[in-house]
Amino acid sequence: MCRQSLVDSTISTEQNHVENSGSKLPSTSDEVSQISKAHQTLEKGTLYVCLSVVILVTGAAVTFPLLQGRRDDLGCDSFCYGSMTSTRSALTLIGTAVIGRLSDKNNTILARTLGSLGLGSGASGRRGCLHLGIAASLVGLGISVSMNSLRGLWLSMIPSALLQHNFDICKSLLSEYHNDIEQLEKQNEEHIGEDTDDEKRDNSEKSNSSRSGSVGKLGMSAGISFMIGPMIASLTTPTFFQAAYFAIFCTIASWLVILQIPLPAQKIISESNKHNDTQKKQTEFTLMNLLKLKTYKSRAAMFLLVIRLNMALAFHIFNTVWPASL
Predict the structure, then answer these.
(1) Can you give the residue ranges of every domain in the chain?
(2) Is this prediction's pTM over 0.90?
(3) pLDDT band at 143 (very low <50, low <70, confident <90, very high)
């Protein structure tokens, strides 16, 4: 009887301990391993994505100080430059929509061919569009080197304006890395039990902070490149063709780095896409969804949009006119 009472007391104590601890079960080693692997993928992916952007933008930025002299040599006046700027903007708008759709899908021909080149197996729309952007940059630079004419100046602008959107695709890749981590942590929370409101708030703040930090690193990489490129051009004073060959070398080096970028977890992405197809159609960026937004109808939003529009309009008008006045 004494032994039975002791056993009952021990069982009751353990049950009370479980109830006081919020009925949470310990995480399995497999779940912890998956979360740790997802964090390692995020760190490695952020490193290679930022490095690829630094090399690519630095090569392009070396040619920036020499473009005005080349336009003057080829007889491109303010009307020519303004037309090129407008055409580039229109092509960029079209290319953003097309590349954005292609990068979201992993079952296209682009994803199964170019998207399968690189670290890790499997088709990837993101990686395929990154390779396509590198190819567009190389084609544009090749036209610039081979055609020293006004027609070549126009033709060299088209591929990069239409297909080179690697910076935006890199941001999407970083977002998918964070989505993988959040998905795994959510599954872990469902396994161990409910979290308190304070714990959920802390986890949400940490996730948002980490996501903002990754995008900030990418933006900082591009900003540093815009400083390094013109500095190299001012110190070495190359000709435009020398700068173009250097840009070709940097573009190829950026492509080699892209081959090392790890892919997000394909299983998590595919499952998420299966369950959220309807939600994606409602939240994807289209013109009709933009017109349905209520944000732009508020006075504060309209005020900011008008200021932004006027600033951009004034900048591009001045940027078109001032080269001809020098």
Answers:
(1) 34-191+205-261, 293-320
(2) no
(3) very high
